[in-house]
Model the fold of this input.
Amino acid sequence: PCVLSGCDKSTSSTAKKPVDFLSKSGYNRLDGAPDIGTSLLITFYVEVCSMLVNATNMLLKARDGHYAVGQFNINNLEWTKSILLTAQEMNSPVILGVSEGAGKYMTGFKTVAAMVKAMDESLGITVPVALHLDHGTYEGAKACVAAGFTSIMFDGSHYAIDENVAKTTELVALAHDHGLSIEAEVGSIGGEEDGVIGMGEVADPAECAKIASLGIDFLAAGIGNIHGKYPANWKGLDFVALDKIHNATDNIPLVLHGGTGIPDEMIKKAISLGVSKINVNTECQLSFADATRKYIEAGKDLEGKGFDPRKLLAPGAEAIKATVREKIELFGSANKA
Ligand code: 13P
Done:
């Protein structure tokens, strides 16, 4: 936790912005230029408090406060900027998810960590932000610890339970030694692959209990959820299974993957049954693509300097913001920073 009173980046105290922190520290902007001591405090605030945090505290708070924190996956600078600015505007904690594929696309986990840390600081973001590996392999999880991520997911759901247990145990120790939070998964989350839609597995509560007892900080358990768009014949989330998993896992914060396209009422019910983190990826991609298509189809790229990427990508970036705003409202994490 941060040693400064008034700094809430990792202590969850009540200060929300640098200015709150400074006024708590006795500095009032109307008094004129800060003295040397205050200048040092400002520098310290930016250097120490403007940093990423792990996701443990934000999810324990969410669990106890009966809301969920959104994990929004990032793909590039525009995605990251849109999500950070919206979380700040809504005064909400946020988790930036990075899949191994997106990590590769952005030229590696080190690039991602450097970009996110610098952007968090440059934008003056004061809400808690975690940088989290999504569906990590064993090797990917280790690479993200080394690269400076603040949270990892190890997805050992495709291993036999004993191997999932062994690898998760090792990664829990590694993550915690470096101050990271760690998510593990039981019961694979389905989704579309090469045009074939796999229905999500429903996790076995006994296996969930076993993995939850290894010291992980939050657990992803399949309850019929899938990544990507849900097919028309989807049966919905299995709340009986979710209730059993919740009861078997000692109140550990649960994670709902495949947040795109789940009806609002199901999201609310899932939160009431222990879900504290909800992952959203495809919905931001769809919003971005839709807004970009409209811009091009309207011929805006052919008008003046409409081809400038800063103009061409702007409607998509705004559309991501709108989607993130909507989800933060729905998940109930606004004003919970
Ligand atoms: P969607 O792409 O369905 O929103 O799922 C995101 C996710 O669960 C990332 O782990």
The pocket of 1,3-dihydroxyacetonephosphate is lined by residues 73, 97, 134-135, 227-228, 257-260, 279-283 (CB under 6 Å). The chain is about 45% helix and 15% strand. Residues 77 and 115 are 8 Å apart (CA to CA). Residues 1-8, 10-32 have pLDDT under 50 and may be disordered.
